[in-house]
Structure formats: C-alpha cells, structure tokens
Amino acid sequence: MTRIYCVRHGQSTANAGGVTMEHAAIPLSRLGIAQAEVLAGLFDSAPSRILVSSYVRALETAAPYCARVHRQAEVHPLLHEFSALDVDQLQGMMGAQRRPLADAYWAAADPQLRAGPKAETFAEFSARVDTFVLELARLPDRSVLVGHGIWFGLLFWKLLGFTADDSAGMRAFRRFQTGLPMPNCAVYELDGPHGGHRWNLRANEDAMRAISRITG
After folding, report:
1. Which residues pair with 191 in a beta bridge?
2. Residue 207 is inside which H or E element, if any?
3. Which fold has domain 2-215?
4. At a CB cut-off of 8 Å and minimum separation 6, what does 98 contact?
5. β-bridge pairing 198-203 and 187-194
6. What is the pLDDT of residue 173?
7. Any residues with CB less than 8 A from the CB of 214 and at least 6 apart, and which?
C-alpha cells in the first residue's frame, strides 16, 4: 500500500488578512511559523520524498519538518496554488477588500475566464492538477506533499471521481472546497491506489487537533 501525506501550509500573512503581495512571495505569519514548528513533530518521521510548492509559505512550512527528518524538500512545478486574480489589480488591498473580487470570480463560474494577465484560468488550473494525478500513482510510499488549500481541494475532488470542466462542475467544486475541513497545516492521508485507480482519503485528525490548540 502507498500512503501519501497532503499538508496545507501554515497561516500566511494573506490568510491573516494582510496587504496584497505577489502570490508566490506571501510568507507565513507569526502564527503560521509556530504552526509549522508544531507540525514538524506530528507525522511520519521517515518520509521517502518531500515535494513542496515553489511558493514561500509552503517552503517555510516544510522547513522545520525537513530539518527534523534530515531530508531535502523537492520543489514540484505543479503544486503551486491557483492564482484566480491578477495580483497587479489587487495592489494595496487588505483581505476584506479582496474578498468581494474573489467572490465575484467564483460566482461567474467561467472556467475560461482570465481575470488579468497574471491570472490563471480555472481550466488551466484543472489541467495542471490532472497532470499531477497521472504522477500520483508513481510516487513512493510515505511521500509528503506540502501545498495549498484550493489545490488540494481540487486534487481530492478529482480523486473522488468528479470533474470540473464546465460552469456547473466549477460551482460544484467550489461548494465542496469551501466546505472541506482544510485549515492551515491540515494533514490528510491518501492510501492506495486500490483496484489500480481508487485512492482512500482520510483526515489526520490528531495532527489537526494539535495545530488547532495553538491556533486558539
């Protein structure tokens, strides 16, 4: 059996409502740094590989764990978060100001919509996750993925057998993703694939509860 650990990054300054920055450069908040330190001792002490998004908040989350297990993280080009909005159009905005724009984007539910030159379409994002799904079964047992909430949400959605190729699928995915318990530093485990293609998904509730105790 193959087990893959899926870890969302710790609280970032953007999660805490901070001013807009380049998506890839957003760091962990002070709380996020503390979450990453606690997370480092909560699961597998002998991972085979540690794959991480290129975004700073994911790299910072992985760093204490890598130090504990004496392994190097490998940046994976497909693991970065969905950039639905163009950061140049959000300059100077705080979290509460960004929220209506994000809500309007998801309400439009247009997979081909590009909300500015630096934005990714949902169709492009979906294709990126599809490409990773093809790689998933080739990962060795006890691999660790450190990434992002919407990205993991779409991975789980696709592994459950759903699609998100049109407006209805995009809306259905968004309802699923916003309802998925995926707080900062959440840990999920994928076991399988069973029958050659099916993965079983379970939350590592002990790890998530430990993180919640310092989150308050």
Report:
1. 3, 200
2. helix 205-215
3. Rossmann fold (3.40.50)
4. 20, 85, 90
5. antiparallel
6. 98
7. 31, 34, 35, 38
| Beta-carbon contacts of residue 170 (< 8 Å; ≥ 6 apart) | 106, 109, 110, 111, 122, 164
pLDDT for residue 162: 96
The pLDDT score that the predictor gives to residue 160 is 94
In the sheet where 198-203 sits, what is the strand order? 74-75, 49-52, 143-147, 2-8, 187-194, 198-203
> Each residue of 130-148: pLDDT tens digit?
999 999 989 999 999 999 9
Nearest to 79 by CA among 67, 104, 98, 62: 62
Torsion angle of C-alpha atoms 69, 24, 16, 128, degrees rounded to 10 = -80
**Residue 50 pLDDT:** 98
- The domain locations on the chain are 2-215
Per-residue tokens: 63: 């760093």
* pTM confidence score: 0.95
DSSP 119-181: ---HHHHHHHHHHHHHHHTTSPTTEEEEE-HHHHHHHHHHHTT----SHHHHHHHHHHHHHS-
**Average pLDDT, 10 consecutive residues per value, the chain (216 residues):** 95 87 93 96 91 98 97 97 92 87 96 96 98 94 97 97 96 98 96 78 94 82
Contact call for residues 168 and 159 (beta carbons, < 8 A): no
Tokens of 1: 């059996």
SS3 108: helix
The β-bridge relationship of strands 143-147 and 49-52 is parallel
